[in-house]
Amino acid sequence: MARELAAGQRDDITDVPGLRAGHWTDPVGLTGCTVVLAEGGAAAGVDVRGGAPGTRETALLGPGRTVERVHAILLTGGSAFGLAAADGVLAFLRERGVGFPTAAGPVPIVPAAVLYDLAVGAPVHPDGAAGRAACEAATAGQGLPQGAVGAGAGATVGKLRGAAGAVRGGLGSASALLPGGATIGAVVAVNAFGDVCDPESGAIVAGTRAAGGVGSTPPPRCAPARSPGRRSAPRPTRRAARTRRSRSSPPTRRSTARPPTAWRRTRTTPWPARSGPATRRSTATRSSRSRPRPARATRRPWRCSAPPPSTSSPAPSSGR
After folding, report:
1. Which residue has the higher pLDDT, 131 or 121?
2. What gap in Å lies between CA 45 and CA 167, rounded to an integer?
3. What Rg do the C-alpha atoms of the chain give, in angstroms?
4. Are 142 and 90 in contact (CB under 8 A)?
5. Which residues face 203 on adjacent strands?
6. Could you say which architecture CATH assigns to the domain 18-149?
7. What average pLDDT does the structure give for the chain?
8. pLDDT tens, 164-217?
9. Is 238 helix (H, G, I), strand (E, B) or coil?
10. How do the domains of the chain map onto residue ranges?
C-alpha cells in the first residue's frame, strides 16, 4: 500500500535522524553486507532467534552491561565467515575517533548478524574490505537501495522443496513518521525458509516454486490474518463430550456402582505391639470388617506390696 512521504523522506531507515546506511554487493558471488552507522551512538537491544544464529557482540546489548550504546549495526552474508566484515567497520570508525572511550582510545561497538548464502552463488564471503566499502557508501548520503543488494544479495525464500524450488529474497527498508513527530525506521534481510505473504490478502508474494516450475499450478494462498474481534466456536470439552455420550447410551453397571473409596484411611498391616494395657484401637481393615471383632483384653491386676484399697465404706472421722 502506497504511503505519502514528507518532503525529503526516502522511505528507508536513513530517514531517522543520525542514521546512515550503505551496501557492498558482489553480483557474481551473490553475497554482500549492509551497515547502518550511528556515529553519535544509539541505544540498542537484541532478540536472537533461530536454530543456528550467527552473531557478534550481541551479548553486550543485554540489560546491566557496561556498554549502553552502539556505533554501527552490520548485516552480512557469507555465514560465519561474513562476520569478518565487521573488522572493516571497526577500522573505519576508529579512524574517525568514534567508539566507547577507554584508556587506550575509543573502541567502536559494532554488533553483527549473518545469513547463510554460501550455496547460492560462488563460495565467497564479505571481508574487512567489504565492510569498509559499505561504510564509505553510507557516508555518501545517497539513501539505501533495496532488493537483491547488500546482505540480501544471496538471500532466498521458499526452501520447502530445496534449493531448486527456492526464489530470490532480498533486503528491504521503510520508515514512518509518528503523530508526535518522531521517525521510526526498519531494515531487514529476508532469508526465510517459508513463503512471504501479504498480511492483508493472504497472497504469496514470494515462495516455493511449484513442482513443474513457476506457473504450472495456481499459486497457493496463505491463511488470512484473523481480526482481533473474530473468535472461533469453542471446542467441546472432555466433560461435555462424556455427558452427551452418557445421556445417549443406557447407564452401565459401572456408572451406578458405588464410587471407589480410595480416600478412606485404611491400614493393611496391624499396628505394632505395645507394652502395657491393650488399647481400644482396632487393626481391622476395609477387607476384614465383616469378621467378628476380637474380645477386649482384661485389665491387669494391681501389682504392689500393699493390698488394694478396700471397697467398704470408710470409718467415721474424729471431726478433724
Report:
1. 131
2. 31
3. 41
4. no
5. 221
6. 4-Layer Sandwich (3.60)
7. 78
8. 888 999 999 999 989 988 999 999 999 988 888 888 888 888 888 876 555 434
9. helix
10. 18-149
